[in-house]
Amino acid sequence: MHITEVVLDGFKSFGRTTRIPLYEDFTVIAGPNGSGKSNIIDGVLFALGLARTRGIRAEKLTDLIYNPGHDGDEDVSGPNEAAVTVVLSNEDGTLDRAQVVAAAGSENVGDVSEITIKRRVKRTEENYYSYYYLNGRSVNLSDIQDLLAAAGVTPEGYNVVMQGDVTEIINMTAYQRRGIIDEIAGVAEFDAKKEAAREE
Ligand code: ATP
Ligand code: MG
């Protein structure tokens, strides 16, 4: 399974609907400092529910909404909504139809050779709201997380290597570094379960 497209709409520096195609093997996104490269990754983490706001460089969810006055001190009004859609190719059958149907809570998920995960954040005068969609069906974060976990994508995983992560790994102790290998090998999950069982 791999991401084929990321669509950013009113998210961070993307004031206009922007479609980013990603290729199966290798895609490089190049651009000057501050041009929005990391914001694209933040968009993926946001849509897939893989990071808390701090992990995507925002204090609160509404900071993720495109703000035309972001870098100035003038208060310019912008949109009240941000949305990011991540399109995944499931042509290799990583997820089967039953798993997608279970996560979506509906038979009405279309062709599951393509998985579309969308998240919106909406601001009103006194509040804000966050919505997730799976192949067009409204779902909860836990539904998305369960589905992604079945495909080997978890918030604790190293599916996304962030700016600074490599330096952090270099500076780790050997013991801490082994923790990463345990995580990747799937051993950490059992260690956690063993620990939980011992406490009972
Ligand atoms: P670098 O090469 O330095 O890592 P980058 O291409 O990764 O740069 P980003 O960090 O993705 O750049 O983008 C930073 C830009 O995004 C800043 O100019 C910042 O003003 C802008 N930005 C962040 N949040 C918003 C927002 N809510 N509205 C408008 N612009 C925003
Ligand atoms: Mg960057």
TrEMBL record:
Homodimer. Contains large globular domains required for ATP hydrolysis at each terminus and a third globular domain forming a flexible hinge near the middle of the molecule. These domains are separated by coiled-coil structures. Belongs to the SMC family. The chain holds residues 1 to 200 of 1194 of the full protein. This is Chromosome partition protein Smc. It comes from Halorubrum vacuolatum. It is found in: Cytoplasm. The gene is smc. Required for chromosome condensation and partitioning. It comes from the Archaea. ATP binds at residues 32-39.
